[in-house]
Amino acid sequence: MKKSVKRIGSHFFSLVWTGVRRNYDNLDDNIAKHLGESEPNSPVEIHLSRMLSEVFKRHTRDEADRLFIVGTKSTTPSLLKVSSRPVTPWFFTRVFLVLAISFVMLVALLFVFKSNKVIPGIIFIGSLAVPFSLMMMFFEINVYQNISVRQTMVIFLVGGILSLIVTMTFYLILPIRTEVSIESALIVGVVEELAKCVVIILFINTYKANYIFNGVLIGAAIGAGFSVFESSGYVSEYGLVTIFTRSFQAIGTHAIWAAVIGGAVILGKVRKKPFTVRDFFTKPKFFIFFLVTVCLHTFWDWDIPNTGIGVSLLQEFIDIVIGWFLIFVMIDAGLREVKTLQGQQIIIHRSKQKKIVNKR
């Protein structure tokens, strides 16, 4: 029995990993044949391990400013000029640092000077710090640079609130119980991920987004908005201490899950066409990622009977690891999409071996 379960699990993760890396049914093969300034045999290397290599380096103000001058007709690069190098976001850590310092200063005002007037600020900054920083990371990762800061903020605010409205609408329809059972956790997971998915699809179709990195950014912005407003709301129910836990737990929750769904929507839809209701039920490359996010959400919310804080922390750790694994899958798929559209060659590094896949 154990061998059978292990075999099924191994097959599942193999399907997730290879399915995204090998299948490009949603790409127009004719584009790959006609694009690309480099030689057709010029190799492209993908090293996801370099992702954080720029974080601890010094960067100028001009470098930071250039990150935000994107998304307009005059600043959106053509597909030929889209960066094909491994993504190396760094500015998001500066955003987090500023928000974290602000949070600490507000907490100091509360406990040192006994100023209750700073409580709203603590709630807002505490809820904002991690989700907003993650959104900025995905903004940097969007190598197509075709979504502006203004559009991102609209998605963050409007999309985040709209996803909460859709969630509450679903809650009126479905029977939600307050008990901490696996059934209730599953219903919450389905409702909230489906609500975010509906809003993500709405924005992807409205913006006519066609690239994986676009979907990931749109999803992350909506998930970040959802996370900020939800965490702020929990304070009124469970007290101010809630913000000290939920603020940093956000590293592996709504923003990450929604980013995965956003990338999956792009993987599932027909290129240059909107995502349809039929795509939702008939595209395995979308549906499998959606189901995984529902499972992750369910596992996060489920209080396993007769267990303590140690098991709960282990659940969260497992959730975060799997969630970020899926993010790296999406980043890998997004980089390969660029190579495919540019008609370049991809080299996969596996320990001491190099497997070459020619895109012809």
From TrEMBL:
<feature type="transmembrane region" description="Helical">
    <location>
        <begin position="249"/>
        <end position="268"/>
    </location>
</feature>
<feature type="transmembrane region" description="Helical">
    <location>
        <begin position="119"/>
        <end position="141"/>
    </location>
</feature>
<feature type="transmembrane region" description="Helical">
    <location>
        <begin position="211"/>
        <end position="229"/>
    </location>
</feature>
<feature type="transmembrane region" description="Helical">
    <location>
        <begin position="280"/>
        <end position="300"/>
    </location>
</feature>
<feature type="transmembrane region" description="Helical">
    <location>
        <begin position="91"/>
        <end position="113"/>
    </location>
</feature>
<keyword id="KW-0812">Transmembrane</keyword>
<keyword id="KW-1133">Transmembrane helix</keyword>
<dbReference type="Pfam" id="PF13367">
    <property type="entry name" value="PrsW-protease"/>
</dbReference>
<feature type="transmembrane region" description="Helical">
    <location>
        <begin position="185"/>
        <end position="204"/>
    </location>
</feature>
<protein>
    <recommendedName>
        <fullName>PrsW family intramembrane metalloprotease</fullName>
    </recommendedName>
</protein>
<feature type="transmembrane region" description="Helical">
    <location>
        <begin position="312"/>
        <end position="331"/>
    </location>
</feature>
<dbReference type="GO" id="GO:0008233">
    <property type="term" value="F:peptidase activity"/>
</dbReference>
<keyword id="KW-0472">Membrane</keyword>
<feature type="transmembrane region" description="Helical">
    <location>
        <begin position="153"/>
        <end position="173"/>
    </location>
</feature>
<dbReference type="InterPro" id="IPR026898">
    <property type="entry name" value="PrsW"/>
</dbReference>
